[in-house]
Amino acid sequence: MAAELVRRPVDVIVAQAPPAALAAKAATTTIPIVFVVGFDPIAAGLVESLSQPSGNATDMTLMTGPLSQKRIEALRELVPKATAIAMLANPVSPDAVPEIGDAQAAARANGLELKMHNASTPVELDAALGAIAAQHPDALLVGSDPFLLIRRNDLVAFAARYQIPTIYPFREFADSGGLISYGTNIANAYRQAGIYVGRILKGAKPAELPVVQPTKFELVINLKTAKTLGISIPPMLHARSDEVIE
After folding, report:
1. Going along 49-138, which residue ranges are E strands?
2. Among 48, 98, 142, 239, which has the highest number of CB atoms less than 10 A from its own CB?
3. Tens of pLDDT along 26-72?
């Protein structure tokens, strides 16, 4: 698909998530690329530096992996007696390895056992959810991969059915009935992508547009779901929330 865009050719390629960004970068060194990714764009080879990309790609990093520590800390506050938690991730995603590594380190630091469950297709997701249901962990951490985001209604329904306190990476999950989310605002990220596309179409060079990093991360709590699960939100966690859904 990236090669087809290059053959046309297009004026700008907007690449959502790591696989698209890497494919676009491999397909062209001349057509401007505006990406939105969760992993480190320098380590991935998309740019040479955040302040001076020096190539044909730039835009926004969501910094999803490093936030695993904060999510696990929030789960520890929500379920103080937890000893084992599960993590659901897409193992074939380019940003899965660093995100899983951060989660494992955070779990160890909080004295928790982290049980991994992988899924990259609907069939694998059904199997992973079945395994999680059988184990019934004290809590669940959902990874930030787009595959899991688009299945958020299924994941929220699963957590509700099996009464598993679950934290998610984006507010879209909490809006759909998920218990709690902590992460970057995706809508703001794409708004930034639109701004950069506009500037490029007016003559700006990607190499001259620094990669934008989020300055704010949203903690969203769904009180209705908490009540259904019989969970009392700790006052300190409630006070830190950016939005409460009632």
Report:
1. 57-61, 84-89, 113-118
2. 142
3. 999 999 999 999 888 998 999 999 999 999 999 999 888 789 889 99
